[in-house]
Design a protein that fits this description.
alpha+beta, six-stranded mixed beta sheet, seven-stranded mixed beta sheet
């Protein structure tokens, strides 16, 4: 089992999809091969294939057991993607069963934001789309609900009326959504805070238990190269400049608090502890997850 303990909270990683998504310069506009080569020892092979110059992306979920509750962070891609070229998701219920969890056991489902690869298993087909987790509350950030709602904006990059209708609207109709803004306390160990930029309502989840700290940052980071160059944002960021400012703020706090940084898409060890390095950051240690 791919699990570590942080204070009184257990954290289990469940991978859905592992692939080399895009050329590095396409994924991270403004970067060149020299930047990636400069940090090659940290990036190859877990995060970058130097021969093809493509960035490795893992779509994954995190399962936290905290204060007597089971919390899922991000539900990955649907197994029936609605858009051409989108990878097919894994069989998430079966993966949960392999670590002893039934969907009915889940109490909270956190979507760090409402992009398709973070909400795919929010629902399942049972004649119609119904919540996959029948007892769970789903905290949704208000800014993302407003941004992705098809009635308030046109379909476009990162926005999909189909994704919203399949993976978000059924949760709203079921009454299981908890709409939050600013900050949202889950329990004594877990708190959500807005971290806008990648999307207007991206939320980071902070874990504080005993002397241990971690921050689940969603798509605030897609690659360790953004630790060395925190002003670099991905092509998927709604507001790249705001994403960079938020990234720097969150990483500064994580470095000062010795908190484990847990991005949504890192392969390899999956999470990292960072230190300040002038205006940048450096890797202090990787987490104990299997690569």
């Amino acid at each position: 089992m791919d699990t570590i303990e942080l204070g009184n909270v257990s954290v289990t990683r469940i991978a859905h999809v592992d692939h080399y998504a895009l050329d590095a310069a396409e994924f991270f506009p403004g970067t060149d091969r020299a930047l990636w080569n400069a940090h090659r020892s940290w990036l190859v092979p877990e995060h970058w294939d130097a021969e093809s110059d493509r960035v490795r992306v893992v779509v994954q979920s995190w399962v936290l057991r905290s204060a007597g509750r089971t919390v899922v962070i991000d539900t990955g891609l649907t197994p029936t993607p609605t858009r051409p070229g989108v990878p097919r998701g894994g069989r998430f219920p079966e993966a949960l069963a392999a670590v002893g969890i039934d969907p009915a056991d889940v109490d909270i489902v956190v979507c760090t934001h409402l992009h398709a690869d973070h909400v795919g298993w929010n629902t399942r087909m049972d004649g119609e789309r119904v919540p996959t987790f029948p007892r769970a509350r789903y905290p949704f950030p208000r800014p993302d609900l407003e941004f992705f709602d098809p009635s308030t904006g046109r379909d476009g990059p990162g926005r999909s009326a189909d994704v919203f209708e399949e993976s978000v609207a059924p949760i709203l109709r079921s009454g299981q959504a908890v709409v939050w803004d600013g900050a949202h306390r889950i329990d004594e160990n877990l708190r959500l805070d807005l971290a806008p930029g990648h999307t207007p309502g991206l939320g980071v989840l902070t874990l504080e238990s005993g002397t241990d700290r971690a921050v689940f940052v969603g798509d605030l980071l897609h690659s360790p190269v953004q630790l060395f160059e925190p002003d670099v944002s991905s092509c998927f960021c709604h507001d790249p400049a705001e994403a960079a400012r938020t990234r720097r703020r969150v990483l500064e706090r994580a470095a000062d608090q010795r908190a484990l940084v847990v991005p949504a898409h890192f392969g390899g060890a999956g999470a990292v502890e960072v230190r300040r390095d002038g205006s940048r950051f450096t890797i202090h240690r990787w987490a104990g997850f299997a690569g």
